[in-house]
Amino acid sequence: MSKQLYRLMSVLLIFCIGSMALPLREVYAQDEEPISKPTDQYSADFAIEWMQLLYDRIMVEGINPPAAARIYGYAGVTLYQAVLPGMPINNTLAGQLNGLNDLPLPDAKLEYDWSLSADAALALVIGGLLSKDNAETAAAIQKLREKQISARKGERLDAAIIKRSLAFGESVGKGIMEWVSTDYFAETRDMTFEMPEGEQFWVPTTPGTKAVEPNWGQIRPFLLSYSGECDIPPRMEFSTDKNSTFYKQALEVKEAGDNLTQEQKDIANFWLDNLKATGTPAGHWVMIESQIARQLKLTLARSAEMYAIVGIALADAFIACWNLKYQINLLRPETYIQRYIRAQWKPYIQTPAFPEYPSGHSVVSAAAADTLTFLFGTVAFTDSSKTRFNMKPRSFTSFGAAASEAAISRLYGGIHFRNAIELGMKMGSCVAGRVTSSIDMKPVPQGE
After folding, report:
1. What homologous superfamily does CATH list for 39-185?
2. Which of 174, 280, 343, 396 might form a disulfide with 401, Cβ 3.0–4.6 angstroms?
3. 214-438 placed in CATH 2.60.40.10
4. What global pTM score does this model have?
5. Where do the CATH 1.10.606.20 domains begin and end in the chain?
């Protein structure tokens, strides 16, 4: 082959390769550009409206605190997974949460509206978790779903985009409900519970009440390896001796209850979060999340991360707490004080129908506060979630400060010993630590 022919063939080859490479580069460049609007360009209002609806329906339906936390947890995960495709550097929770397998993916070549995907997914999951016989709940869910669809139509969104976005959200919702069906909740409905006998064991203090969710520790945790992973034993021996720590802690509860200031009564009432009167203790923290979303001007992407990871912490905190409650089965201060100190004594707040140790408010509040601090750092805020119940807002210098007040409110209410409060908060911090150190959403920035 002559040198001239060789040079000619080389030039032609380079030209052909260059001609082929140009459109390939253009294709790859197009693939790297998101077709759909990213989730962080949507308002958090879509999520806040759904969490408010969930709180309201849990209150109306009278769902008990552990069961409510489970629903909030699943709602948070559903929201996150429905908008995840619009968060390209974030990771799925599938494979990170117990029993959660791969969920449906959208067509990367088509455009979607992630707010509508969240709308459809949350409507399906919340509707599946709340009472299916409550027509008012079904109507409220349908009304919000249609409202959010109408809002997007008002922005002249293409009908095909609306249809496929809703279909994708529903596919995510169905995947979540398959996961829900394997958490052992249904099996616990038929389990029995036998009250242990002995002077240190819990007995109901209100006639006609039944133990609330005595088998809740059997529910599959969202993230914890097992229900007892964060157990902290009471480390306070039961005793009726007047010189014992147990007696002195009971005396503290009595004396506090006998001398409550108006401020202490306000604190006890603010964090009461009673069944059927509110959306439960977990719901109180969900409402705080919504207020933080507005205060920090979070996007839909950032709020989805928040509702998911805090929801997981809330759900697992209740599983861990209830599991230990029914193992220890410790009597309430009301019972102890009436037996050994003053027979006619009554707490400021009616004693709930489950064992004393650990304090549920303490475990759950510490878990929520530590998780929120992990996400956002130290944030001062005002909690106005109870103004609808004619209570004044309360301001806090940090999430931890709010959790500490929620915890001590139970001593003011006369329903927990200090030991259950202090060790309960440590237990909640353990749950939060497990959740925040194990879940990789990437990124989960702090201090913004």
Report:
1. Phosphatidic acid phosphatase type 2/haloperoxidase (1.20.144.10)
2. 396
3. no
4. 0.91
5. 214-438
Residue 253: which residues within 8 A CB-CB, separation 6 or more?
333, 337, 347, 411, 414, 416, 417, 418
Profile the chain (448 residues) by mean pLDDT over runs of 10 residues.
Answer: 42 36 32 80 96 97 97 98 96 97 95 97 98 93 95 86 97 98 97 94 93 97 98 97 98 98 98 94 98 98 98 98 98 98 97 97 98 98 96 98 98 98 98 97 60
What Rg value do the Cα atoms of the chain yield, rounded?
A: 26
Nearest to 362 by CA among 428, 309, 315: 428
Task: List the structure tokens of 139.
Answer: 């109507």
Chain-centre distance of CA 41, in angstroms? 24
CATH 1.20.144.10 intervals, the chain: 39-185
Written as one letter, the residue type at 114 is W
CA–CA gap between residue 324 and residue 304 (Å, rounded)? 30
Determine the length of the chain.
448
- How many Cβ atoms sit within 10 Å of the Cβ of residue 296? 17
Amino acid at 139: A
Residue partners of 50: CB distance under 8 A and separation at least 6: 75, 79, 118, 119, 122, 126, 144
